[in-house]
Amino acid sequence: MSQAPPFYRPPEGWLRSTLMTLGFGLLVAGGVADQGTIFPFMVIGVAALGLTTLYLLFPHGLHFAFGTSAGLAVYACLFAVMGRAAFPSADGAARAVAFLLPVTSFLVAVWWRRRTLRLVAEAAHPFDLGHLPRMARWLIPVWSVGALSLTLPVNRLGVLDQSVAVIAAMAVISAVVAASVRGVVLLLTDMALITEELAGRAARILVPVVAFLAMYAMLVIVFACLYRIAQGLSLHALFHGPQGPVPLPFPDALYFSLVTQATVGYGDVTPHDEGIRLLASLQVVAGQVLLLFGFAEIMRTRRVQASDAAVRRHGPTGD
Asked: Could you tell me if 50 and 149 lie in one domain?
């Protein structure tokens, strides 16, 4: 009697990587929506295609897909900005082809060398500064193509010539990326490892950070209520805006309190009373003191956690 195949379980972290990749794609698609009706859908499609391809090729290397999501978002933004500046009159179809060329060449190169790249994508090694010189070998040519596209008078050419030029420029970038696919994989993997390490550090100081934010919000609300009460008890306007006196409803009081505590400077709402100025000064001082205490508590928590980790590694010291 043949044994039933084991029930498939997706690798750990697959949902996070999927949501991160598609979330980046959706966010960037909304940001570049002014580039035309096709481009935002292409960004989402490329994000989904990249995640699916990498997931099928590297089932246990989802941190690779996590780094790729950031890379795709950065690439889409750079293409939207630099493509519009260097090739303003290029045809929409040519832009679509040009946008897809580097992504397609990268995915094809990854598939072609999937066996040798699997170890790189699934490695759990720390970030290696020795990768930087290898990254420069393909980053410098790619940025050189972008610099030449912006420097040469390509934007003065006709629609057809600009369309050909943008496809040619992205074809060169595609060739560089395909030839340097291992360096690209190392960069994306290191990006993911650094991000995961930062996320782990942030999780360890989550409790003092949440406590600090709660106290910060409480201070903002307390002073906002004081400003609103003072305005309600006053016979004249204590705050002015660009058009003159303002009644300062509670949303405006909350906004004024936050701006005061953050010390970003006054703009549309300013205090026009000596007592309110004194109260605002007290809030600034209280906010700075709270910031110092919050920073000290976060540093103390890190020291305590580092000490506990050292004890767990080496064991308690005996007499």
From this structure: yes
Task: Please state whether 158 falls in left (phi above 0), alpha (psi between -120 and 50) or beta.
Answer: beta
pTM of this structure: 0.61
What backbone torsions phi and psi does residue 272 show, to the nearest 5 degrees?
Answer: -130, 45
CA-CA distance, 303 to 300, in Å (whole number)? 5
- State how far the Cα of 218 lies from the Cα of 128, in Å rounded to an integer: 43
Q: How many CA atoms lie within 13 A of 184 on its CB side?
A: 25
Last residue of a domain, one of 203, 238, 263: 203
pLDDT digits (tens, 9 = 90+) for 198-207: 666 666 667 7
Q: How far apart are CA 200 and CA 188, in angstroms?
A: 18
Q: What total number of domains does the chain contain?
A: 2
Euclidean distance between CA atoms 195 and 97, whole angstroms: 31
Tokens 């400077």 correspond to what residue?
A: 265
The range of the structural domain enclosing residue 122 comes to 14-203
Q: Report the DSSP pairing between strands 239-241 and 270-271.
A: antiparallel
Structure tokens at 173: 């970038």
Give tens-digit pLDDT for 137-193: 777 888 888 888 888 888 888 889 888 998 999 999 889 888 887 777 777 667 666
For residue 270, the SS3 value is strand
CA distance 122 to 66: 12
Domain assignment present for 88: yes
CA distance 280 to 257: 8
35-42: long-range contacts (C-beta < 8 A, 24 or more apart)? 35/80, 35/84, 36/92, 36/95, 38/92, 38/96, 39/80, 39/95, 39/96, 39/99, 42/96, 42/99, 42/100
Q: Which residue has the tokens 């040619």?
A: 168
Residue 229: alpha-carbon gap to chain centroid: 40
How many angstroms separate the CA atoms of 68 and 62, rounded? 10
